[in-house]
Amino acid sequence: MIERATRSDLRIAIPAEHHHVPALVAWLDRELAPHCPQWRYFQVRAAIVEAVNNVVSHGLDGGAPDQQIELGLRIAGRSVAIDLEDRGRPIPSDKLDSARLPDFDPDHIDHLPESGFGLGIIAAAVDRLTYRSGSGRNCLTLTVALEDAP
Amino acid sequence: MLEWQDEQEGITVVRLTEESLTASNAASFRARLSELAEGGRTRLILDLANVRYVDSSGLGALVSLLKRIGVKGELALCAVAPAVMSVLTLTRMDKVFSIYADRGAAVEGLSE
């Protein structure tokens, strides 16, 4: 795990494997949580975890210990931008465009979805989502306003 | 990653000993709980007091267990941390699971 900071930016890099996610969560608890209302922080942290999982599971076929996933925080006033950079297979644009949480009837247990929540959690938890991919590098940027609880 | 204790009226309380339920451990959690259910323990309370966060894989494992138990048993969650509750609420799974404040309330709720 590598950390570095420049002025208002904070950055961390973790090996692209699921078992390194707890180290990222601990770093977020330290660096991002103090800037956010608790309810907002938990949702944003969930979105970041899903984004990292998505890179590991789908962009890198389950993980690549020789590759790094980099995460940057840019906190400015009452908003925060989170940049997640990787060198895995890009997320297909149609999947991002259509990302939403699965719909279901809570009373019909047999039909409850067991998967398909990941991108939906990301989309539902943030205010803006942008994705750039090129030259073998992908960058997902999540932007959230740090307003008080509704 | 799991400890369990049989309570009254066929209720079993299962405590997760790890601090997360995620892509790293969801498969083993699912397998272990399925063994318990197939062994006849179908009135389950999951004590999540130690669990600080879940991801979509962990959520999927919980839903899978609920579907496996189905109408022949019961599944409740208790001692759900705010961060875990946040994910349940965001995904509307808080409408699906019976959720209790603590183990005692859950045992009482399933005993009624």
Helix content of chain A: 25-40%
Number of β-strand runs of chain A: 6
SS class of chain A? alpha+beta
* Shape type of chain A: globular
CATH architecture of chain A: 2-Layer Sandwich
Top-tier CATH class of chain B? Alpha Beta
Low-pLDDT ranges of chain B:
none
Helix and strand succession of chain B?
A: EEEHEEHEHEH
N-to-C CA distance of chain A: 35 Å
What is the chains' assembly state?
heterodimer
Short précis:
Chain A is α+β, with helices and mostly antiparallel strands and 150 residues long.
Describe the protein in words:
- The complex is a heterodimer of chains A (150) and B (112).
- Chain A has one domain (2-145): Histidine kinase-like ATPase, C-terminal domain (Heat Shock Protein 90), CATH 3.30.565.
- Chain A is 31% helix and 33% strand.
- Chain A has four helices and six strands, in the order E-E-H-H-E-E-H-H-E-E.
- Chain A has helices at 21-31, 38-59, 93-97, 118-125, and strands at 2-6, 9-16, 64-76, 79-86, 128-134, 137-145.
- A six-stranded antiparallel beta sheet of chain A has the order 1-2-3-4-6-5, with helices on one face.
- In chain A, helix 1 (21-31) runs antiparallel to helix 2 (38-59) and helix 2 (38-59) runs antiparallel to helix 4 (118-125).
- The radius of gyration of chain A is 16 Å and the shape is globular.
- The relative contact order of chain A is 0.19.
- The model of chain A has no long low-confidence stretch (mean pLDDT 91).
- Chain B has 112 residues and is α/β, with parallel strands linked by helices.
- Chain B has a single domain (2-103), classed as STAS domain (Transcription Regulator spoIIAA).
- Chain B is built from four helices and seven strands.
- In chain B, the strands form two sheets. In chain B, strands 1-2-4-6-7 form a five-stranded mixed beta sheet, sandwiched between helices. Chain B has a two-stranded parallel sheet with strand order 3-5.
- In chain B, strand 6, helix 3 (82-90) and strand 7 form a beta-alpha-beta unit.
- The mean pLDDT of chain B is 94.
- Chains A and B meet through helix 1, helix 2 and helix 4 of A and helix 2 and helix 3 of B.
